[in-house]
Amino acid sequence: MGNCGFCGVKTGALKCRFCGKNFCNEHHAPEKHSCKGIDEFRYLMNKRGVENYGAFSTKEKTLGTFKQ
Ligand SMILES: [Zn+2]
Ligand SMILES: [Zn+2]
Q1: pTM of the shown model
Q2: CA of 33 to the centre of ligand 1 (A)
Q3: In terms of CB atoms within 10 Å, which end of the chain has fewer, N or C?
Q4: CA–centroid distance, residue 42 to ligand 1 (Å)
């Protein structure tokens, strides 16, 4: 129980698995709330050099460009 960490709407138990905050249906996706946890997650993935996450890395670059 809590409020959406992005828009403040009262929400149930939609916890982001990357940053651990609560979000409403609309902002639950990491991309929708500029998730900081997923940045760390991706960083760890890159650090490990997991090639299976190649698609993920491409998305990271896109998001990074988008943010700046
Ligand atoms: Zn929201
Ligand atoms: Zn998050």
Answers
A1: 0.59
A2: 8
A3: C
A4: 23
